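Hey team,

Filing this mostly as a record. A colleague (T.K.) asked me to run one chain through the structure pipeline before their review meeting, and I want the input and output archived in the tracker in case anyone asks later how it was produced. No errors, nothing strange. Just documentation.

Input sequence:
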Amino acid sequence: MEIAQLHQLFLEHPTVCTDTRKIEKDCIFFALKGENFNGNSYAAEALKKGAALAVIDEPEYATSDRCLLVENTLETLQKLATFHRKHSQAKVIALTGSNGKTTTKELINAVLSKKYRTIATKGNLNNHIGVPLTLLSIQHDTELAVVEMGANHLKEIDFLCRLAQPDFGYVTNFGKAHLEGFGSKEGIIRGKSELYDYLTAHDKSVFINADDGVQIEKLKSYIKKYGFSSKNHEYYPITLVDADPFVKLKAEETVIASQLIGSYNFTNCAAAVLIGKYFNVALSDIKSAIENYVPSNNRSQIIEKNGHRIILDAYNANPTSMKAALDNFDQMKGTNKTAFLGDMFELGPTADEEHQKIADLVSSLGLKQVFLIGENFKGTDTSIEKFKTFDLLREHLKENPLKEDSLVLVKGSRGMALERILDLL
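Output structure:
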């Protein structure tokens, strides 16, 4: 089937599903494959549950005239998404970076939706499947689409750019994330810069943090760049006012008091201000959007529980974000400061070195208590309390509960699921 024909069917049934547990009536089911499943085998179930059509790539599963047989289901999904994006009126703003992508995406969407009809990546569905699904959520009246792009190896952002064909883009930062796939900090810079490479090659506009030397160097001769800075008056001036615990920033004469903790969230807010200004959103509306944004999903949340004030930042972790969280925690005012730090994943051969650096950093801070959790932290050379498993930590806390009125930081990679600590406090 030609993509143009499939697109006509999509316009009649403008909802796509890839999971039979989430089938919506009259959707199109795409039978994707994974290491441990074959979506083709679920096509009949999808139709029975209310899907209008099922796109499959194995002929033996074509049990109905509502099954559309294609050569490769994933590639068809991706081609359909690009076709739909090209035939929409929406402008696409792409976003990538090592840290802060999802928060920045949410802030940008909150700001732009004050004036425009927008759509944005749901959650962190930012890979070779998530980006197409986001593009296919563009409506006929969508004006701006904010598309988050994630990557853990070279050429991935380049591929996602060719799918989404962005008109604008922003890289949050170049931190030590996914070192296992990128190989080095230089590899990370090359990989994330593929967004800027695409935009400059197609004469599109880029947004930058002009206080980031890497971004300035990468784009020093490019004209269509728009940046914010707290130092360089050639760019839109935005300054950090305070971050104890919530970020306050100043743009022009307006102070914006966010509900985001940590100075590391300053640039995330500043990017949303800059992009809002570029698209002529009133500064009063920008202020309202940022001040009313509340983080969720274990991202920099502040939780009060049993007399403790807990900073829950357990959605993910890498050496850069871990250091930023600890530096910020060290500067915060509070009593009985206690940190629960979990292993950082996807660091490849640098894992031992990077975990030791964090352990050394923690030893230099004046925290009351620190608990290191996971196999990687267990292997560090430090006198800090270490627990190879979460269960061992649980047993320890049963016998040695935290002192009342503690200020607590919880930080670790997603696989550590450290939000479980809330049940122990």
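Quick notes for T.K.: The chain is about 35% helix and 20% strand. The chain has a mean pLDDT of 92.
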